[in-house]
Amino acid sequence: MNRHFLGQHHDRIQADPSGDGVDRRGFLECMAWVGTGLLWTVSGGILSSRRLAFAASEQPPLLGGEFSFVQISDSHIGFAADANRDVTGTLQLAIERINALQPAPAFLLHTGDLTHGQKPGEFDTLAENLKSVRARQVFYVPGEHDVFADEGKAYLDRYGKGTLGQGWHSFDYNGVHFIGLNNVSDLKAGGLGALGAEQVEWLGQDVAGLSSSTPIVVFAHIPLWAVYPQWGWGTDDAEQALSYLRRFGSVTVLNGHIHQILQKVEGNITFHTAMSTAFPQPAPGTAPGPGPMKVPDDRLRKVLGIRKVNVVQIPGPLAIIDSTLG
Amino acid sequence: MTIRNHTTLKTFAWPTALAGTMALATLLMPAALPAAQSKSPTPQVTVAKVASPQIRIENFQFTPAAVTVPVGTTVTWTNDDGTLHTVTSTTKAFSSAGLDEGGVFSYTFTSPGTYSYFCKLHPHMTGTIVVQ
After folding, report:
1. Contacts by residues B21-24 (CB-CB < 8 Å, ≥ 24 positions apart)
2. What is the CATH number of the domain that holds B70?
3. By C-alpha distance, which of A39, A10, A31 is closest to A316?
4. Confidence of residue A321 (pLDDT cuts 50, 70, 90)
5. What is the CATH number of the domain that holds A269?
6. Contact A189 B118 (CB under 8 A)
7. Per the domain annotation, does A96 fall within a domain?
8. Of A10, A231, A285, B117, which has the highest C-beta tally within 10 A?
9. Residue B54 within a domain
């Protein structure tokens, strides 16, 4: 069924009949034909994505080589202001959502801002909570909130094993090449995210020997495209890194940092930012700054979420499904 | 600049990088001279009239963004914003810890110069302290 819907013409999202209060504005429908693949992302209600693809009871077994993984982002453990006074609670909700997925995801990617202030106990609380997630492994990249106070020492102590430099790394899973980048460790005044020459050069060498048909997934905290530079939402030297990836047939870039879903397609590269599990932030330019955004309590779960990514065996981009916590 | 011969100037070295006219006028008549009278092309500068200038952090900005103070001044930043910020010098001369809302950071400038600083979490937030 994965191949079916991926190969067929798009369907329309209907108004949510379950009456769970998600209004039309809460839906983000984004479909694009790219090559022979269909990029499908829904934000706002699991029901829509279920109808089209993966109702829990209808989930077909993945064919050989196919798998799914989950991206979570911006858990901000330690944050306790008005926008969400219980970020650990919403993280637990996210973990419940993940544990309800059938089949279970192969692993998790956390795209940074694990903690809010690097205060004592914050990393530990996150680790403690993630112990209950039903996935074999969690891979991390840091956010600026994880490294600002001590040049990344506490983060690397915990998550630096097997990584290079300030925590970049790559791994392969079922023929897909995953690349975790750190674009938060050397932020300059007035600048955006930064990868640094050493990391960019490493990236070039890391992918040099791969055939162009290898699907690539890049994950990094700050968006790798210029979402909104006025708020620091972009990466100064992303273009050079992306130049090493443009020859590949399927490149999926997963980012966090902005606490909302925005997407972009550039040739074979698709970019997706993710919701936070802690609090939302305003849309670009709609507030004086990119700070935590307070929403009515009964709406909080609808603006936080997780992302499930299905890797299926057709050429083209990956099927991506966003779902909120409530 | 005829004012250069004023006795005030002999007490400390004069940084050549500073815009001369406006800063000199400040020292001579601190109570009376608004920054708007400056002929220099530098951005609007707030004259430090009190012993310990206060800079507010709010709406992802340092306000005022540019301040001129005499050597030995203690500048105090207060985070009035609803999120964590830092006050970090670009030359590592000083850096606050993460400041929660209500958090305060002070630094005493004992050497003349121009100190650029920013927020490590939101690097598009920048400010300058000119110490003379």
Report:
1. B23/B68, B23/B130, B23/B132
2. 2.60.40.420
3. A39
4. confident
5. 3.60.21.10
6. yes
7. yes
8. B117
9. yes
